[in-house]
């Protein structure tokens, strides 16, 4: 069994290494253009500031450690030994270093249909999530995104009120098990704070053929008009497409 007490986990360089690595992770995400996959744009400045601050702190602590004499280090170690800790000193820094290395190695990816099905695709916004920011008359129907339509439905959830309106939206395909085989859901993820709280919203698309023609996770641009359909006794706003075109994954796949 690994004896953590015998390991030299009290080395102050572990703390410096953990701080430096986490600063590097945040700066890597920023400079690599991947920050939007994990953090809401409203918090980008805070994340970037944290990355710069952690890097600066690591440099300052490195300079301080290099100046310390062996006598001062000995006193510091003796002082730390007098404290009673549940976990071995330095274990927290090792965990931070391990997770930071994973953050440097593993590239963030876009959520897909499996996550959407697991979290449930809705055409409404839960009370605890992002609330309506605009209403229908502000934006022309054909200029609305999926999240615009969902916000509009949140304000006035009567699908017949929008029947016949033009629609032009982009999203990825989800085959919902609660819909017949000739329907798929055009879906986008909405991020309110970070990747941990993303949730899917979408609208059903009615087809003349089987939805197997459009595999899950395929990104599509769907044009057509709104109609009202009934699923499991619930009337729901649905897209009657006039054009369905495959598109590449957008640079920013999330709505906010």
TrEMBL record:
Lineage at the top is:
Bacteria, Bacillati, Cyanobacteriota, Cyanophyceae, Desertifilales
Q: Which UniProt keywords apply?
A: Membrane, Transmembrane, Transmembrane helix
Q: Does the keyword Transmembrane apply?
A: yes
NCBIfam families xrefs: TIGR03943 family putative permease subunit
User: What superkingdom heads the lineage?
Assistant: Bacteria
List residues traversing the bilayer. Answer: 12-31, 43-63, 84-106
Originating species: Desertifilum tharense IPPAS B-1220
InterPro entries recorded? DUF1980, DUF1980_C, DUF1980_N, UPF0703_membrane_permease
Residue ranges of domain DUF1980 in the record: 18-121, 154-256
What name does the UniProt record give this protein?
TIGR03943 family protein
Q: Which Pfam families match?
A: DUF1980 (PF09323), DUF1980_C (PF21537)
